[in-house]
Amino acid sequence: MSPQRHFLVLTFPLQGHIAPALRLARRLLAAAPDALVTFSTTEAAHRRMFPAEPDGGVDDCRLELLPFSDGTDAGYDRSSTDPAAFTDYMASFQAAGARSVGELVDALAARGRPVTRVVYTMLLPWAADVAREKGLPSALYWIQPAAVLAVYYHYFHGYAAVVADHRHDPSFVVRFPGLPPQAVRDLPSFITDSTDPSEFFHSVYTTVRDLFESLDRESPRATVLVNTCQELEEGALAAVRAYDALPIGPVLPSGDEAGLFKQDSAKYMEWLDAKPVDSVVYVAFGSLTGMAREQLDELLLGLEESGRPYLFIVRKDIKAELADAVETDAWPKNGVVVEWCDQVRVLSHAAVGCFVTHCGWNSVMESMACGVPMVCVPQMSDQRMNAWLVEFEWRVGARAEVGGDGVLRAVEVRQRLEEVTQDGEAGAGGARGTASEWKRVVAEALGKDGSSDRNLRAFVEGIISSVSL
Ligand code: UDP
Predict the structure, then answer these.
(1) I need a surface site. Which of 265, 364, 411, 430 has the fewest CB within 10 A?
(2) Prior bond of 250 cis (ω within 30°)
(3) Which of 44, 87, 32, 35 is nearest to 69 (CA)?
(4) Residue 142: helix, strand or coil by DSSP?
């Protein structure tokens, strides 16, 4: 008799990685009612997420929560601006992580709960090697768009030189096989701004490079679950035929969800309840993006001038940094500022008519799933390509341009908001109407027998090759 299916889901300890990993863990359980899942991130992140069970616990009898070690007690100190500290953390994460996950796989087997498949998010290039050493199959869980997977794939298979030669020329157009022409300014920032060892995120660049090398070692082909759906990214998925790439998303939360941040009081929901349909601008820049005082003031001014009510997320760490210069209670006239909200609940609220976003992939997918058009303010990593997809592929938003000094001015905020919230043909191709159409498409993909639902079931049944893309 073959052992009970047991997926070990491993993730890097960032909110934007943890959230889709935990959502996938729950979807795996739903797709395979007899399967087990172990969700595992670093000890420090685990303690923040599950303070009641700091050493590990059981969410329900089929989902176990067990941390692995990154070689540190407290994780990476995000307040540090020392590039060497970040590089050291990444080195420790890779070495200790690989060791600790190997031990975790052995420990689970020893207590009669053997892992049958390892699933890992993108900054763990060693996970496939650990799995292979233990005789287990693995799958990369790609938590960015298929378009970015395809760009990285081609970059590391013949296109690095052309990008390197033009990395300081934002308007230079690169033609990757199977993808629309892509300007350098829209490419993932790690291949344009981090390839030199002196650059801050160089260790992320080398980690991504190691990941793509590790995928090449998979035989006969690497399996890659992609947090997108077929209908959103047909062309990009076809551009990565070197892998068995399965679009299984966009994954969404099922009820309350543990994370690294504590929610503000839920008063903002009552505030939203009192607002007219589609009137509110929701503004949030994810879990990592910082914000200078000048930028915050320009955003608030632009929002005030738009005349629309707004819900603005300013995280606690940003507030703390600005503390001496800011009296937060004095800011909003027409809006409310909170530290952290239940974003999917907010985007699902009928009063929310537009999302001003940094275009983290989770935020973009959540907005697409909720049918909310976007004003894009991308910064780094995949965000610039995500903004490009929003504006040009799906036509559900507009990118706001920062000035030469890197600051997004109030007038630009106001104009892009007007453009995106206009109804009908004139406004960005009618972004709101297009967004509702995509919402329906995404719901169908996720629903019973939709494309993502079928792909996930094929994955859990181990019959990937029968999935036709
Ligand atoms: N998020 C949230 N509440 C907030 C702000 C963000 O729940 O107030 C969540 C959001 O729903 C998303 C995640 O944080 O799932 C951010 O991930 P994303 O990929 O958008 O950006 P990152 O934080 O990785 O830059």
Answers:
(1) 265
(2) yes
(3) 44
(4) strand
* CA of residue 340 to ligand 1 center, whole Å: 9
Best residue among 189, 362, 377 to mutate for probing ligand 1, ranked by most atoms within 8 Å of CB: 362
Identify which of 455, 309, 438, 423 has the alpha carbon closest to the alpha carbon of residue 372: 438
Strands 57-60 and 352-357: unpaired
Task: For residue 425, report the distance from its CA to the centre of ligand 1, in Å.
Answer: 31
Evaluate if residue 224 carries a pLDDT over 50: yes
Atom of ligand 1 nearest to the CA of 366: 11
CB-based pocket (< 6 A), ligand 1: 14-16, 19, 284, 286-288, 313, 340-344, 360-363, 366
Please state, as a whole number, how many other Cβ atoms lie within 10 Å of the Cβ of residue 385: 25
Bridge partner list, 376: 357, 399
pLDDT, tens digit, 9 for 90 and up, residues 254-307: 877 889 998 877 789 999 999 999 999 999 999 999 999 999 999 999 999 999
Atom of ligand 1 nearest to the CA of 364: 20
DSSP 426: T
Tokens found for residue 15: 């909110």
Residue nearest to atom 8 of ligand 1 (CA): 340
- Report, as residue numbers or ranges, the catalytic residues: 17
Q: Whose CA is nearest to atom 15 of ligand 1?
A: 362
Q: Which atom of ligand 1 is nearest to the CA of 289?
A: 25
Q: Whose CA is nearest to atom 5 of ligand 1?
A: 286
All structural domains of the chain with their residue ranges? 6-255+446-466, 263-444
pLDDT tens by residue, 133-162: 999 999 999 999 999 999 999 999 999 999
Q: Which CATH class is domain 263-444?
A: alpha beta
pLDDT of residue 3: 77
Mutate to test the pocket of ligand 1, among 12, 14, 15 (most ligand atoms within 8 A of CB): 15
- Helix (H) or strand (E) run with residue 317 in it: helix 316-322
* CATH code of the region 6-255+446-466: 3.40.50.2000
Q: How far is the CA of 286 from the centre of ligand 1 (A)?
A: 4
d(CA 238, CA 162): 22
Angle between helices 293-306 and 410-421 (to 10 degrees): 40
Give distance in angstroms: CA of 359 to centre of ligand 1: 10
Long-range contacts (CB closer than 8 Å, 24 or more residues apart) made by 277-280: 277/350, 277/351, 277/353, 278/350, 278/351, 278/352, 278/353, 278/421, 278/432, 279/308, 279/309, 279/351, 279/353, 280/308, 280/309, 280/310, 280/311, 280/349, 280/351, 280/352, 280/353, 280/354
Q: How far is the CA of 157 from the centre of ligand 1 (A)?
A: 31
**Residue 247, preceding bond cis, omega within 30 degrees?**
no
